[in-house]
Structure formats: structure tokens, C-alpha cells
Known about the structure:
Layout: H1 3-24, E1 27-30, H2 36-46, E2 55-58, H3 61-74, E3 79-85, H4 86-89, H5 109-114, E4 125-130, E5 132-137, H6 155-169, E6 174-175, H7 184-197, H8 207-220, H9 234-239, E7 244-248, H10 253-258, E8 263-266, E9 275-277, E10 280-285, H11 293-303, H12 306-316, H13 332-345, E11 350-352, H14 363-379, H15 384-402
Parallel strand pairs: 1-2, 1-3, 6-7, 9-11
Antiparallel strand pairs: 3-10, 4-10, 5-7, 5-8
Amino acid sequence: MTFNRLRSTALVAGILLMAGPALAEPLFWSTQAKPVEETQRMREQVLAGFPGGVDYQPSDEGPWITRIQAEAQAGRGTIAVLGGLHGDLSSLGANLVDLSGIDVSAVGPAMVELGRLGTTEQKYIPWMQATYLMVANKKALPYLPAGADINALSYDQFIAWTKALAEGTGGPKFGFPAGPRGLKHRFFQGFLLPSYTGSTVTEFRSAEAEVAWNKFKELWAYTNPASTGYGFMQEQLLTEEVWVAFDHVARIADAFNQRPDDFVAFPAPAGPKGRAFMPVLAGIAVPTTAPDKAQALALVAFMLKPETQIATLRATNFFPVIATDMPADMPPSVRASAAAIAAMTGAADALPALLPMGLGDKGGQFSQIYTDTFERIVLNGQPVRAVLDEEAAVLRALMIEANAPCWAPDAASDGPCPVK
Length: 420
């Protein structure tokens, strides 16, 4: 055998040796943790502990769905596990394995239900989440209504609290991100309206929605009027311009990290339909074409282990979907937020209201309707019923134009989500 043939044979053998283990690794095909640093942390800190290793490959949404559809059409594939937001997974139900055999008892039942995608099967398992929370300076706690549980407040109790704060301190102490950079529309879409109507879209102009907006008008009377300029609420919490606030977890982090002993995070209030909240929920699923389903199911179960959930938090800044103790070296904001998120998502009356889906490039127009409704009713004092009737017509036309079906908590629809 010549030297060149020996070298060639050795090269081929080396390639096979390298390729062998890689082929045995389950392919985790995900729309999440796409930045290079997060991808590396997912591989080295989260998935390295899975027996045999994992081939974690992030992808943009377009190529992600194209590959899944191609493998489904071919009837065989290489993808073992899928990772994506609820909206990414929502159209794939027919191509996903039933995961009902995996223990999800540590996950909030409302999120488990979302993973069924409207079927009787567990189409995906909740994986990680982010959301919005309430924050209070501990100075505000003595003003809570008698007998009130800060982790289980109603809107009536919350309004009574803000009233007591305003009267007891000489001015309104609730802060709301109603400025140009504020996420006020998410509060109306995911918290206030679903809590009173059980809906984000269909019941937009209902009598229950009218009650919700009137409740918010009551709350606004005890809200710092400078809120119309507020963006990230951590700033006003730190200056003590406000003592209680609502915002996304990322926009309150500095308050906890700079003064961890001064603040407490807690769930948003509940209305007659439940404790509505807006999770940014990612799930993990197994396609029917997975090459080794037993291995894929083992990986899904691995992602729910407490230590894996904590490692995922470190890698992605998305929070666990299970209640678990936070390590002491976690930033104070993470420890405080995780406890409040667990209380909110695990509540008996939890009502997840998902981020808008299926709107394409019309998402901004959708959110503007809720902002316009707020400004007309609350800031300009226009009649609630007249505003809801007029804005509902705009919303109805937009849903038809976008051909966007309903998303939770609205019931599934054939065609555009209806606005009654």
C-alpha cells in the first residue's frame, strides 16, 4: 500500500471516527438562543450533561419551519427535538409526538394546557419563559388592604392599595409605563382585558371590557400623572418617584440589582375571569419523524430537570417553567422575579394571554389600537362604550386584513379572529 493510499485511508477513518458520535447526538433544532454567546452557553452549560451529547442548532424562523416541513413531507428526518416559542410550534400539531408520558407535574397547569395546542395530546412541553410583573417598594406594604395577600390580589384590592398610598403619602405612588417607550399595550392585551373578559380580541367591545376600562380609570386616579412619560419603570422605582409599578422583568431588573433589600416582585392582580398574564413562552417538542424517539423523549425530560432549568436561565435569561430554588449567586433581580413568576404561573386562577400571533407586519397596528383606546378613554375622557365600538371596528378590519386566527385566551377560530 502506498503512502498516499495509507494517508487517504487514515483520513477517511478519521472522518468516520469524528462523524460517528456526532451522528448519534440528537439534533435540537431551535428558534431560541440564536446569538453566538447564548448558543455556546446552551451547548457547553446546558446540554453538555445529557448522555451522549446534543447537537444544538439555532435557526431563524423561516429556515426552521422549512426544514421541519420538508422532513414531514419526506416521512423521515434527522431532527430529534424542536425548540421554539408557542407561536412557532402552534401550526405543527399534526406533526408532533404526544408527550403525555412526560412528568409535567412541576409546571403550572395553565402552561401545560397551552402545550396541548387545543388537542387532548401534549404536543409540546413548556421549556422556558419571560413575562411582566408588578414591583413594590417595601415602604408600600403597610398600606395594603387588611387581609390582602400580595401574591393573590384582585384588581379591587390593588386599586384600594393605590388609593391608600396616595392618601397616606400625599400623592399618587403607582407608576405605569405609559410613555412612548413604555409597554402599556401589553398590559391591556395580556393582563387587564383578559382578566375581565377572558379574551384579548373577540370580546374587545363587550360589557365586561367596558367594566375593565372603567376599573383602569379608577386606578389611573391614583397613578402618578408623570406616567405618560415613563418607559423603563426601574428608573422611577429607584428614585422613589413611584413605590409600585408594572413592567417587563427586564425593565425592572436594575431596581432589584441596585437595592435588593428594598423591593418585592409580585403577580399582577386578578379579575372575574382569572389572573391573566402575558408569558413569552418557549416550548420543546418531538417531531413524528424523529430518528430515535426514545432518545428524543429523554432529552425533553432532561430539559425539565431543576438543574437544567437553572442552567437554561443562566444561558438565555429566560426563566424556569417550574418552581425551583434560585442559587445564591444569581442576581437579586432573577431571584425576586423567579419567585413572583412561579406564584403567577402556578396560581389556581392563572390565565395565560399569549403575545399576538399571525399578524405579520401588522403587529404594530394591532398594538396601536389598544394604545389609542387607552388614550381616548383614560387620558382624554371619552365615553367608554363609544370608544370601544369605534376601535372594535378598526380591530375587526385589521384581523380580517391580516387573516390572523385567534390565540389564547381566545378560542381557536377558522379564519380571522372574530370581534363581536
